[in-house]
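anyone seen this seq b4? input:
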Amino acid sequence: MSLGFRTRKSVDGLAWQQESCNLLTRAFGDACTAQATAARKIPDTILRVSVFDSGCGKQYKFAANIILWLLAGFVLADAGIQGNMQIIESVDTTIYRHMKSHMYCRPVIPWLYSTHLTLCRQKPHAILSMYSNFEYRAEKHVVTSMVKMIEWLTVDNGSAGPGRFDDARGSQSVEAETARWLNSTTEGRVYVSVRKVWPVKFGVLLERQVPGAEIASPKPEGERLPTFYSLMHPLDEINPVLVVSGYSGSVRPAYMSDLNQQAVFMSEDPSICILYNSSSNSHTIWKVRRAKQEENNLVLQTTVQANLSNSPASAMLSNPGLYLHSHSHSHSHSHSHLTSPGAPGNSHSPTPTSSRTRPSMFPNLWVTPKNHHQAQTPKNHMATLSRTQSPSIFSGQHLRLTISPSPSRSPFPRTPCTPLHSALNETLAESEPLVPDLCLDHLWTDNSLGRATKAFLTEDSVGQRYLCLMLSQAGMLRCIKYDYTNDRSSLIFGSISSIPAKDALPIKTLKMMIVVDGSSSLSLYTGVVHVSRINLLGLPTFNSSLFKDFSSLNISSRLQSPSTTPLRRSSLLTSSRPASALDAKFEVGLSPVISERSNFEGSFSEDTGLPLSSAIVALRDPTDTRVTLEHASGNFYRITLPEMTSSPLVKHSLTALKYILPREAALKLVNKWYATRNAPGSGDFSPQGEWMMFSMMLLSMIGYDTDKLTLMCPVETSGSCSPLVATKKFRAAESGSDNDWEYMLSSPFHMAAGNSLSEMLGLQRVGVVQKSQEVNSGSVNTKAPLFSHLPAILFALHLVYEDFKLNILHWEYCSLLVTCLDQLASDLQATHYLHHYWRDFPTVCPLHGPPSQVPVEEAQKLTFPAYFTMNPPHVLAHLYMIMGGIEPEPFPYIPQVCTTTKNIILLYSVAAADCSLQDIPLERFLRRISSSGQKPFVSIDVSMSPQYHLEKNPSIHEKIVLLTNQLGLTVRDIQLLAPGVSLLLMNAQHMCRTCPPQDWPASAYHLIHRPDLVAHREEAAKNEKETGSRGKDPFNIKVRCHRDPDSTQEARKVSPTSKDEEDGMETLDMDMLALRWREDQRISEVRRMLCSSRAVTINIIQRPEVSDHEFLEEQERHLYALCIRTMSLPVGRGMFTLYSSAPVITETLPIPKLNLSGKAPPRGTTIDLSTIEVPPNMDMWPHFHNGVAAGLKIAPNCGEIDSTWIVYNKPKGSLDSPTEHAGFLMALGLNGHLRNLATVNMHDYLARGHEMTCVGLLLGISVAKRGTMDIQTTKLLSVHLECLLPPTSTELDVPHTVQVAAIIGVGLVYQDTAHRHMAEVLLQEIGRPPGPEMENSNDRESYSLAAGLALGLVLFGRGGEAAGFTDLNIAGELYHYIEGGHKKPLLGVHKDKYKSPSYQIKEGDCVNIDVTAPGATLALGMIYFRSNNKAIAEWMVAPSTPYLLDQVRPDFLLLRTIALGLIMWDNVLPTSKWIESHVPSTVLTHVHRGGSQSTPGIDYESMHQAYYNILAGACMVIGLKFAGSANSEAFQILWKYTRMFTSFTKRSVAELAGKSTIETCLNVILLSLSMVMAGTGDLDVLRIIRYLRSRVGPSNSTVGYGSHLTIHMALGFLFLGGGRFSLSTSNMAIAALLIACFPKFPTHSNDNRYHLQALRHLYVLAAEPRLLIPVDVDTGRLCQVHVSVRFKDTDQYRSQTFEAMAPLMLPELSKLSQVVIEEDSANHRYWPVWFSAHNKTWSVLETLLRSGEGLAVKLKDGRYPYGDAPSGFQVQLAHLLTQDKSARWTMKSALLEEVSGCSARLVRTLVGGSAPPQPPSAAAAAAAAAPSASTSAGPSSAPAPPSPRIEDGETAFTQALVTIIYEYLSVGKPQAITNWLAALQGVRRISVLSQRAGLLLWQVKLISRAAHFLYSLSSASCSCSPAGESLSPMEVTSPTVSSCSVEPSPLVSAEQALSLGKRLEMLTDSWLEEVSQEVVRYLRGEQERQYSAKCAFTLVMRDLPLPLPLLGAEDLTDPITLLAALQKARVPSTAIPPLVTMLFSSA
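predicted toks r here
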């Protein structure tokens, strides 16, 4: 056996499990019954499958091996044969060797073995032998507990099945193994033997093995140990069992301690047990239930009072029998071996938290002071069974009763060498009572002839229950009849019967028993009634390599004459004995799979030496219909009993008859049928043949002479309606004649199938006119068992017949059933039934029925049951009346049989009555029948579940869908309903499909064909489950990082790149990008601008006067300028590729190269920086950014990133840069994966002392732990911050950048926590003075800024509520740092520390605001964010006088403006007026005034610098407030200032303020503009970025590294995350953006003086996925849809909406109120989806956006996706032609060749198309449609073509079908096409008088009436819905209300139904001319006439009644008399006009 399995890099658990299950099912399906050699191959096969790719993680290997192993055990155990033990042992041994080497497998191997044995249910000695080699002694307590579970789960329920363990050698080996590996932990323990373990409903029951000595000298009852104990859970305690009533002559509860009681049988349902009393030789039946608290109180109090004088210690020590270890065994067939509570030893005791303990129920009984425990704790032997904290542990045969205290309750230590007496005393001091869990109630006592060796429960064919006791010694099976009480709380036992038997087993599937009788033969019984003998025709011995098709099972109803003909559908196999009894006989076998082979050589013959069938000695292993026979020779044979029936018709009929007949009669029927069906012989088991067999058997049991019945297969009578006669048999003639042809035409096969074949092939029907002959009518036997039940049988089968009418797959059975019904109705003289069957099948059933065999006088003697009605129930007419507004009588039905009838009538009745779903009056609509007459109606639970109740009353259509779902109907069930019946359900689905309620279950959405809504709910539920445990984890963002593999391969073929040329942007979602920006190449341009792995091109021309050497230097200088730009690219590339890939964990993360070389065209000469002088290590920080960019590609939802993989990415060679790895570590912190880094690896990184690594690691860990106040992270940061270390700590040489990273890390870890101590420390660190000595002298500005930003993070937005910080005066201190002044004296440790001044910096006594002002300014703005505190805001206002303005640095004005905007956040407006309001008037008057307009004494440079910085600061505030919103006003104002400052760079005004100031302000405004347009990819912004980045060279000296860094950050914001992410405006997002976009940019690549460059990457904390990506739910491909977005109303705007095409970047959801997909119902191509902020759908939308998997949408049938339609004009044409109600159009089939969607293949099949042709032009499409009716357009309108006649044939049918298909697809009703197809075909088949024409006629009538019924339902729904009220667009807050306003039209229009009805009326009108006289004669009741099928169908179509004898000749002349007579006969009003017309015309 060879198996292959696909190697995977990563394994999904569920997919793995499914694939493994399928693989193993194919591999091991026949392994359990194959030859013995196959058993040795299975372990190797499993290992071949379970070994994975070496790159896969060990956890996945382990999980895969578990699945394979368990599945293998399940498959092998399925056969239920004992021979499986060899295979199990072989598999277990091999798997154990394989798994023992894996560290992940070792701790759970015990659990694994127990689970495996749960499935296999085999003997445990193989497991114990493997555990004996278990090296890990620390897990031995787990091993012992699992042995207990193994024994618990391998109980065989008392049968001699696979769980048998009766060989002595096996028992000794178990005990030996148990003793060997438990001997080291059993010192001081005492054991009690366990005889058997029984499974019960509540857990397991343990039966104690009573030693012989204890039985010989029994103790008084109060001193005995209980004999039964219970275990409710593996970790619970073993408690004694109580017994109540009838035991020991007392009603009081007592312990089960009778030594003579032994368990025989246990059952879970019902919960009973059977005990055998050896002293009285009787069996008692007990109910197993939970013990009550009052019973426990009684028994414990009694026990204490009875033993007050006893010393527990002496009692225990003087009772050797309590602790002795006994090896005795009883004669039971199976033994289980258990060990009891208590840990095996000290070192292995489980922790208290791991055990399941319960508080004592009786603390007052046993609680005593510890110092008086010996004198005041009197207990009997029960007190010694103390509870322990350790789990109960089973081992071998012993119940170990621990006498040491519980570790959780005893204050004393436990030592293994404690003496027994001290341990005993300690136990008595701390022990608690064992409170019983279970109690036995006595139910029944049976005095038997001996002990039962086996017991089981069985049920007969009619539901009678029996408890069977196999008394082997007496040779009989004792059957006790029982039943439940009315409340099912107890059992009632009845009669007792005995059957001679040696062995017996139940066959539950057949509800029978197989019995070995006294002659060792096999018989079948159902209950106590004998069914048949089972004849085995010799059991041959096979060679293991010989495969033969052998059938050995015959069931004969004639006991004396066993047949020799083998019966098919049987199998034989052999099975091995246990390993202890193997010999050569057991190595042969035959698989049931092999018996299906067709070609074999040789044959079997009788062999006199073979064992006979009468030598069966035992039965075993019953499963399904299979059982194993144990032969006297020692062989085992597996046989399969045949099934009861295979035909649905026979199955339903049999079930109906069993329900309606008395039990005795039903039992005879079932037994007779089983014996008849499976009698010896080949048999015809086709549906037709099986029904004929059943019907003949049924009629014979009624008493018919079946040989003289004309009942045959359905026969269509000829046109002359001649009576049915028996065909004449001709003698064989030598020469052929016409009689041969006539005989073939009159054969049953031709009569059954000839007409249907002719009809399908379009041929003329061929038949033979049978001559009328005298029919020999037999006589019925009135003494037959079922004759008296003839009316009940007719009624039951009639209800089955009516039920089958509702399912189109059952229509063929109706024609089979109707012949039998016709015969029964004829004999009962049920005229109405005869007329009913004749109208349904006039070509099969004659009007007056077949000849009767029942005499009239006998028929009149029959008693009709109360439920029998003389008018036959007609389900189709019943539905027709309901839709017509008439409420008929309740319809009868048989439970569990007529389920379709019940469901459909209930649905139609609820729709017509519009009753509440919570209270459906079932008795008003349905009538349940029973065999004993009319009973009170039994309610059926069809009420809705509470979680699906709607807040308002649902519409009628919603009620129908919900009720359909509650009744369990699926889409498949609805499709199988008859066409006219399913319309109501399909219409409800159609009406609810557009906008269903949002709180429906998934099954209801499946019903309405909305898999997209199901996908939304499932995705939301899955993500909610995954993130529920993590709470508010910021790293639960998931992204779509997979692509279509086909497109990926194509992309690789188009652009093959080497590893060195990879630009790091290959993982982008190109499918989404191509769909979102499909009309330009902006993505390619962005990739080109952000590529840093390729050498740049140096395009300069060598001038003639320049030498080669000078030109080379010039090239290098130009290359240096380009390299400055290249070094700034990684930051932007990291933003562009954010969260776009999932790494392969077996490989290192590829980091693209940072290429700083160039190429000079045209030869491509490589130029590098070798000649000119460049700054040292200028590429250090760019490499850091490159590593961050590479790490940020990893998505947060990649769960495989662990510490091992992080360390695996460490640089290993000299070529790998540790700086890039440092950036990689920071990126892992930004996406949350650094939380998985182990502490030891973290220490290893920091111990290396690499500055960049420390920066990246500290920042990464801080971000990963942000807001958690994590203690370990705080300690880690404190090591690098002197301010957080104690004064006496060792001084560490920490680099300055590491300190900056640590101080900002403190702010991140404590962000938004308002931690007082950290806030105080950070406030002091802002003004940290230089020194002492040489310390803190360089780049002080960045440290102070970091401290201020960290303070702002800790107290962000807390300024108005920081009541606990008033003493710190934070605002005052910050203002002091901003405005300056004298330094405040240092206090505490700082005073001593800074005694020594700085040797490099002399600051004086004043605060250096150049250092402290930036951090303090931003900190003040962040703390008072959105507080609108005008007092604080006044501090930030720019000075209004030139003098004061000169005191503030211009760049500080930018920061002050930002802080002012943060404080007054609510006043920020995107207008020029708001921006310029920040500029003082004195500045405005002097700006842009030079030359003659200048004013003396004014510093115009300062004025311009202040002006530009204030403008830039105000623009940045707008950028922060409107970040990610794409607000048009904000964009316009920022775009204006961006263009203005861009123009300044080329004008002289730049000289006034300085080019560097203009460049800085331009960068700030550009960054603000890109923040507003984040994720939108706006082309205008992209163009200006492309222009600004092109400024390279000597002419752009002010454009340095900082400018390029800002430009590429703006580019990254514009395409954030590959266009999938935008920016949030939450508090922490604003803080992160403020830190990342700090408006002070580096002057060179290593500049960290003012701002640490690593902080530029904190923008990640503000990114959030908001891209709405539609995905077609059927194809899984991305698509485009229309999206309507509605904003919430604010003070600034109201009723704001916009529409766009998705993929779409949505605004922040907190600002939206509604998102609608495809809102325009008239033109949409996809089904609409509504998301509202007022219901649960909003959380679904949030989850879908965060998951990144896309929004599932459902394409409408017949529609093309946007962009894929052949012609837009053609789509409009479809709406034009179908929406116009005044005209009807005839379509050409060519238009349907282009149908898209799920119905495309069906439509092309119907209209004859094979493949979609080329799309036609618009002109061709217009010409393809022509009006089919004259409209009101005037004379110019096209004339209407003549309407086709019915007889036009295929052309007219196809034309009508094409028109209907085109119309229904264009309006989104594809499900109605099948109904119309059935209706059109029905009209055709009716016209040719098909056999099923009667059923089809009713379907056409139902469809015609359904149109009006559905219209009335829609009108009622609209009139009572909230949509009737006037709602403004903003008041529509739920999908339900919105859908009502645009409710679709019903599924079937009245015009189409009228057309269909008229088509049928035309047909019947043409018939009426022929059969009018027949109709009149029929109505007059002329019985002697014969009537044609056309007459029957005319009566049905015209709703004409049954014959009216009151219509005499004289009545036909008076119309008034005629009308009165018709009304008296209750003729329907619709039938009166045609009836009067015919009667008068005939007169």
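Residues 1950-1980 form the longest helix (31 residues). DSSP finds 73 helices and 41 strands in the chain. kinda curious what u guys think
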